[in-house]
Amino acid sequence: MTGTTDRRPGPFDLSVADLEALLDGEPRYRVAQVLDALHGRFAFPEEMTELPRALRDRLAVALAPALQPLGRLEADGGDTIKWVFQGADGARVETVLMAYPDRVTVCVSTQAGCAMACPFCATGQGGFVRHLSSGEIVEQVAWARRERRVTHVVFMGMGEPLANYRRSLGALRRLHRDLGISARRLTVSTVGIVPGIRRLATEGLPVNLAVSLHAANDALRDRLVPVNRRYPLAELSAACAEWVAATGRRLSLEWAVIGGVNDRAVDADELAAFADALGAHVNLIALNETPGYRSPAPPRAERFRSLLAGRGVNATLRATRGADIGAACGQLAGAPPGR
Ligand code: SAH
């Protein structure tokens, strides 16, 4: 594993004290000017024309982005955008923007690759590369913000945010405090890392939590979400209940509908019981095509939704975005564009 400390910190990894040190000898107001330029419009150093040229030149390296865009693809008439970024060490991550009539959501990666090895997810199949720094997570939002007014951020890209807890939390705090995105518009999605869920409940940060459930019996979930062997459903449910009690927020359960695997009546029964105990909302998505996994016929996901509705479960079927550019849930593999 490559550490995160041997790379130059990115602009969003710098604390105010770091910036003060960098701007030592300059008038004090320069710190606020640089912070405004970074957080307000994610200006590159050469674009900070409010600064004298000599200072801009001096900051060119220190405030250079930590991620370089290798590619940018559009789908849905420009309402879905996927970026492939490369870190200074060559690690690749992907970021997806989805514009809707009432919101613009950016889906960020928290790790290059992922160690969770869910068999139906392209990221999981590629294995783990390294953790992203807080600044690298925030910077993905900043890049998107250069193009659109971002209203919501979901930690649902490559990687498992709660397996990179400290840096993911640092990114949430910075998005909230410095980029001005309210905690209620930030969502963390987890495969179900129980200690991470418990810890998140204590942070006093009212973000949304989504748990990628996909199966509500241990035998099936052990196969679909291997980390279930470590944190089985009973423990997961208890941790989720703690989170709900501590935050008073509604939990979401994610369920990728896999035809014939987790969309039977018995699956609906088990999911209904699990969701009901937690007062959770269920987000269904038809499985996106990945190597070895086929998308279910479209009516199957809708049929499963109505099975759940018949059991009193509040479930919505999400429309997939960006499948044609490999930007849909589970398709992010960090491959360069055009492959
Ligand atoms: N590791 C975190 C964050 C990744 S979120 C988590 O698992 O929650 C990515 C979401 O897409 C998860 O809900 C994941 O289960 C789902 N997903 C993965 N592969 C998919 C696929 N092929 N089709 C649809 N959803 C998929």
In short:
Helix content is 34%, strand content 19%. With 339 residues, the chain is α/β, with parallel strands linked by helices. It starts with 15 loop residues before the first helix and ends in a 21-residue tail after the last strand.
Give the arrangement of secondary structure elements.
Blueprint: H1 16-22, H2 29-41, H3 53-62, E1 67-75, E2 80-87, E3 92-99, E4 104-107, E5 111-113, H4 122-126, E6 128-131, H5 134-145, E7 152-155, H6 165-177, E8 186-190, H7 194-200, E9 208-212, H8 218-224, H9 233-247, E10 252-257, H10 265-278, E11 281-286, H11 298-310, E12 315-318
Bound molecules: S-adenosyl-L-homocysteine.
The structural class is: alpha/beta
What percentage of amino acids are in beta strands? 15-25%
Total domain count: 2
**Low-confidence sequence ranges:** 1-5
Distance between the termini: 25 Å
Number of helices, where a helix is a run of at least 4 consecutive DSSP H or I residues: 11
What is the name of the CATH superfamily of the largest domain? Aldolase class I
* Widest sheet: strand ordering: 1-2-3-4-7-8-9-10-11-12
Ligand identities: S-adenosyl-L-homocysteine
Number of strands: 12
What string, H for helix and E for strand, traces the elements in order?
Answer: HHHEEEEEHEHEHEHEHHEHEHE
Whole-angstrom Rg: 21 Å
The CATH topology of the largest domain corresponds to TIM Barrel
Average pLDDT reading: 94
Return the CATH class of the largest domain.
Alpha Beta
Shape descriptor reads: elongated
Helix percent reads 25-40%
Main sheet characteristics:
10 strands, mixed
Question: What's the architecture of the largest domain, going by CATH?
Answer: Alpha-Beta Barrel
